[in-house]
């Protein structure tokens, strides 16, 4: 089968031309995602926190940045930074760092909204109670509000990271030799096996995305964030369906609590 014949190129799919060249393939997608999240996290937190300010000179620039970046397709941002940065700085910037910078700006805008929503989700009384105990506003935010906000943000952050990993596939457009570009090269070398090459690319992205999602559920359970799927994957809530299932005689409702953590023995 043509798909199994793609195992001949598995090293190229995973690492690109490494060790004879730079790291590429699926490994480069993972590296791009981690570097983008690392570089954008602090900037995203500052932007999200700035959006909560009532001072126009603080709020409006942050709001403008977030709205412009979120309203612009990622592929346009990649092209823009690829051509704009060398022109501004007057030097050559590699396609790798052009991709990292564009993905970092893109990620910062979305992380800012996650941070803003997480802080707003913390009840106002938490800050007021901390201030009445004699805490400074800085300590109240750092030790009371932000820890609670972080717990709320974790699912959204992890979901966005998985999405950002898949978005790294767009950097092939400027010549970055990641998994998509590797698959295109193989498909061009073997046109009769093009479909198998693209299926192999999809399997690679799925394996990493599924693994990240599973680790996210473990992280949520470890820090005490429970959802229905984490507790009981086979549970259902038919009362939320537009067309509920007709229950048989003597069949009662499922009274399992939706968001309660599992009982410890």
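^ Assign residues to that structure.
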């Amino acid at each position: 089968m043509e798909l199994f014949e793609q195992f001949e190129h598995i090293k190229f799919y995973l690492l690109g031309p490494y060790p004879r060249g730079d790291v590429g393939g699926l490994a480069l997608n993972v590296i791009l995602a981690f570097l983008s999240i690392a570089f954008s996290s602090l900037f995203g937190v500052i932007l999200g926190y700035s959006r909560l300010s009532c001072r126009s000179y603080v709020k409006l620039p942050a709001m403008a940045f977030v709205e412009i970046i979120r309203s612009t397709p990622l592929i346009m941002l990649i092209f823009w930074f690829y051509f704009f940065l060398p022109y501004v700085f007057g030097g050559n910037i590699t396609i790798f760092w052009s991709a990292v910078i564009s993905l970092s700006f893109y990620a910062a805008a979305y992380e800012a909204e996650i941070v803003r929503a997480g802080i707003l989700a913390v009840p106002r009384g938490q800050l007021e109670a901390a201030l009445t105990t004699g805490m400074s506003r800085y300590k109240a935010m750092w030790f009371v509000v932000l820890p609670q906000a972080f717990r709320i943000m974790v699912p959204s952050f992890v979901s966005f990271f998985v999405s950002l990993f898949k978005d790294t596939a767009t950097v092939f457009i400027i010549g970055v030799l990641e998994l998509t570009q590797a698959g295109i090269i193989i498909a061009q070398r073997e046109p009769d096996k093009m479909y198998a090459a693209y299926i192999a690319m999809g399997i690679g992205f799925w394996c990493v995305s599924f693994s990240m999602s599973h680790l996210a559920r473990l992280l949520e359970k470890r820090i005490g964030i429970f959802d229905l799927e984490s507790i009981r994957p086979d549970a259902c809530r038919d009362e939320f369906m537009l067309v509920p299932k007709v229950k048989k005689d003597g069949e009662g409702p499922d009274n399992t609590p939706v968001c309660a953590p599992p009982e410890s023995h």
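The radius of gyration is 23 Å.
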